[in-house]
Amino acid sequence: MEQELKLNEFRTLYRYYRRYIGWYDHLLLAVLVWIESKVIWERTANTVDDAIEAYEAVEEPPQDMVTPVYTEQFSDTSVRLPEMRLTAPWYKEGGD
After folding, report:
1. In the chain, which stretches have pLDDT less than 70?
2. CA 89/CA 87 separation, integer angstroms
3. Which CA distances in Å does 79 have to 65, 70, 72, 85?
4. What DSSP character marks residue 76?
5. Residue of 2, 16, 7, 3 lying closest to 36 (CA atoms)
6. Do 42 and 34 contact (CB within 8 A), yes or no?
7. Most exposed: 9, 17, 22, 69, by fewest CB within 10 Å?
C-alpha cells in the first residue's frame, strides 16, 4: 500500500526535508502522513462544530401551538354518520 500526502502543505514539507536516503525518506513520509491525518481530523471536527454552533445560534420564531377546531354536523345526505371536520382556528369557510 502506497502512502501519499493529501495536503499541499505536507507535500511541500516532504519535498523540502527529504534527503534521498531510503530509510530517512520513508520515516519522514510516515510521520508526515500520521500528522496529516490528525490535522485533517481536527480541521474537520472544528468545521463541523462551528457549523453546529452557527445553526444553533439562529433563533427560530416561536411556533404557535393552536388547538384545531373539531366540528361534527349532520347533513341532509348523511343518514347515520355525521360530517366531521378538523380545521385550523384561522380557517374561514367560503373564502374571505
Report:
1. 1-3, 62, 64, 78-79, 94-96
2. 6
3. 36, 20, 14, 17
4. S
5. 7
6. no
7. 22
Residue type, 2: E
Residue written as cell 516532504? 14
The angle subtended at Cα 42 by Cα 36 and Cα 43, nearest 5°, is 90
At residue 72, the 3 state secondary structure works out as: strand
Instruction: Please give the pLDDT value at position 94.
Output: 67
How far apart (Å, rounded) are the C-alpha atoms in residues 37 and 40?
Answer: 5
CB within 8 Å of 69: residues ≥ 6 apart: 85, 86, 87, 88, 89, 91
Distance from C-alpha of 30 to C-alpha of 1, rounded to nearest angstrom? 12
| Beta bridge mates, 69 | 87
pTM of the model: 0.57
Task: Report the half-sphere exposure of 63 (CA within 13 A, side-chain side).
Answer: 3
Residue 4's Cα: distance from chain center in Å?
A: 29
Domain residue ranges of the chain, discontinuous segments joined by +: 8-57
